[in-house]
Specification:
Number of helices: 8
Largest sheet: 7 strands, parallel
CATH class: Alpha Beta
Strand content: 15-25%
CATH superfamily: NAD(P)-binding Rossmann-like Domain
Bound molecules: hexanoyl-coenzyme A
Number of strands: 11
Distance between the termini: 56 Å
Strand order of the largest sheet: 3-2-1-4-5-6-9
Shape: globular
Structural class: alpha/beta
Length: 273
C-alpha cells in the first residue's frame, strides 16, 4: 500500500541546486524518497557524488552535475544533462546560496556582487532555463525557491543576502502569476536557522552565537534540514496544486519578533493592563 499517494513525485524529475550539502542534500534525498529522479547541481563534485550515491543506495536515481549557477551556459548544460538522463524535467529547487556576515560599510563591491550573483542571478538563470524548457514542451511544472525570513525583515550584517533573497521572493510572486497560464507553480520556503554542516552554520559557528540564535526561536531549536526538505517535497507535489506565489515560513516562530512590553511570559512579554 502506498503511504501517501497524493504527495508522490513518482516518475517526475527535479533539479536541486546546492544539492551536495545541507538543505539541498536533504531535499534531494526527500524528493528521491517520494519517487522523483533528482539532478543535484553544485560547484564541488565530491559532495554531489556522495548525495547521488546515497540516493542510489536507497533505491533511487540521481545525477551529480557540477555547475556554477552564476554561469547561464553552465546552467543550460546542467538542464540538458538532466533531460538527457531522465528524459524529462518537472521542476527545480533553487537552493544554492552564498553568504557571509559583514558590516554593510565594510562590504566590497565584489563581496556584494558575489552574493547577489549567486542568490538572485543564479536563481533567475536556473528558473528561466528550466521554465523555458517546460513552456517549449507544453508541460506543467513546479519550483521552490529557498529564501530566508530576513528577505522581509532585513537583517544587520547580511545586507547583500537579504536584498537578494527579497528579489527572489518578488521574482517568485511575479512569475507565479505570469506563468500560471502554463501550469507552472512557483513558491518559496523560508527556513529559520537550520542544522547543517555546511556554510550556513558558519553564521553561528561560535557557541555563544549559536545560543543567541536558539534563544531567538520560540520553539527553542534549529530546524532539521530534512524538515525543510519534507516541506519542499510537499510544495512540489500535486498536493500543493492550488498553492502558487506563496512563502512557506518554517522558522519556529523566530520572525514573529520579540517585542517586549512588560514582564517575560513564555518567550516574550505582554503589555500590562
Ligand atoms: C568579508 C568576504 C567574506 C567575508 C568573501 N568575501 N567572504 N568579505 N567577509 N567573510 C568577499 C571577498 O573578499 C571578495 O571580495 C568577494 O566576497 C568574493 O569572494 P570570493 O571568495 O572570491 O567569491 P566566491 O569564491 O565566489 O565565493 C562566494 C561567497 C562564498 C559567497 C563569498 O562564501 C561562497 O561561495 N559561499 C557558498 C556557500 C554559502 O555561503 N552558503 C551559505 C548559505 S546560507 P574582494 O573585494 O576581496 O574581491 C544562507 C542562508 C542563511 O544564505 C539564512 C539564515 C537563517
Amino acid at each position: 500500500m502506498e503511504e501517501n499517494p497524493v504527495e508522490s513525485l513518482a516518475g517526475r524529475a527535479f533539479l536541486v541546486t546546492g544539492g551536495g550539502t545541507g538543505i539541498g542534500a536533504a531535499t534531494a534525498l526527500r524528493l528521491a524518497g517520494l519517487g522523483a529522479s533528482v539532478t543535484v547541481v553544485g560547484r564541488r563534485k565530491e559532495p554531489l557524488e556522495t548525495v547521488a550515491a546515497e540516493v542510489a543506495r536507497r533505491g533511487g536515481d540521481a545525477l551529480a552535475h557540477t555547475a556554477d549557477v552564476r554561469d547561464p551556459d553552465a546552467v543550460d548544460a546542467a538542464v540538458e544533462a538532466a533531460v538527457d538522463r531522465f528524459g524529462r524535467i518537472d521542476g527545480l529547487v533553487n537552493n544554492a546560496a552564498g553568504n557571509f556576515v559583514a558590516a554593510a560599510e565594510d562590504l566590497s563591491p565584489n563581496g556584494w556582487r558575489a552574493v547577489v550573483d549567486i542568490v538572485l542571478n543564479g536563481t533567475w538563470n536556473c528558473t528561466s532555463a528550466v521554465a523555458r524548457r517546460l513552456i517549449d514542451t507544453g508541460r506543467p511544472g513546479s519550483f521552490v525557491n529557498v529564501v530566508a525570513t530576513y528577505a522581509w525583515t532585513g537583517h544587520p550584517g547580511t545586507v547583500h543576502s537579504a536584498a537578494a533573497k527579497a528579489g527572489v521572493v518578488t521574482m517568485t510572486r511575479t512569475l507565479a502569476v505570469e506563468w500560471a497560464r502554463y501550469g507552472i507553480r512557483l513558491n518559496c520556503i523560508a527556513p529559520g536557522p537550520t542544522e547543517t554542516d555546511g556554510a550556513g552554520s558558519a553564521l553561528w559557528a561560535a557557541p555563544e552565537d549559536r545560543e543567541r540564535v536558539v534563544s531567538s526561536v520560540p520553539l527553542r531549536r534549529f530546524a532539521g534540514a530534512e524538515e525543510i526538505g519534507d516541506l519542499t517535497g510537499f510544495l512540489l507535489s500535486d498536493r500543493a496544486g492550488y498553492v502558487t506565489g506563496a512563502v512557506l515560513t518554517a522558522d519556529g516562530g523566530q520572525s514573529l519578533g520579540r517585542q517586549v512590553y512588560g514582564p517575560p511570559i513564555g518567550d516574550g512579554a505582554v503589555a500590562r493592563g
